[in-house]
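Running low. Any example?
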Amino acid sequence: MQIHTPKIHKKAVLGTISLLTFLLILTQISGGMPLNKYKFHLENLTKSLTERKTFPKETKIHQLVEEESAIIEVVESASSSVVSIVVKQVSYDFFSGPSLTEAGIGTGFIVDSSGIIVTNSHVVSDSSGEYSVVLKDGTTYEVEKIHLDRVSDLAIVEVTARNLPILELADSDKLKVGQKAIAIGNALGKFQNTVTAGIVSGIGREITASSGYGSQASFYEEVIQTDAALNPGNSGGPLLDLSGQVIGINVATTPSADNISFAIPSNTLKPLLETFLAKGRIIR
């Protein structure tokens, strides 16, 4: 990208310098200010006329480029720690009979390199389901254990893996309305690592949400509101700040309105995760 700046006309500069030179000689002859002082003022004037200026329009362009670069850096760094969660389902065809298929149902993110993954409890709540997680590079791990906390709608799942890349948790109490927010998730259960960006639209919201018609509604307190687009399949994925830390766990969107989605604050997860890592189970 080229940045265009106004050109300084050489004739104008030369005309100014010529005039000052004439006045300089005239004053020197008449016993005025010493020549070396006029030379100093002349050099400063020439420098101020010829040096490059920064204008508001250019500043805005720089800010946009910096903001885009920051988002790209976060996505490149965090994506390998975000997983798609799939479940095996038995489908029946009249001609071929029953068959086993896999369907994407949600998102999770790695919080410990030994294979500890966080998601929403409603994503992995089917006790009869056979779940697995898929990394960005396509590597698949079977879920070994599931630990649910239905009160917070959070879950910790375990897979047998080592040296996995992790995401760090931010202090969600320090969130400010208006700051940037980036969501990564398995949108619609089939578009892996979809990225959307927006801002923190509100904090401390209270909402009631359900996963569909006939399902039990859940009440959420102190959740984060964002205008980063979320879709079915994003549940359990991370909401990130510009430093790449998790500020929230995406949980719900509003199908009847545009750009209104919600995430559970990272500080809600922290005590659950700390006790789990210490005790091997979720303790309230």
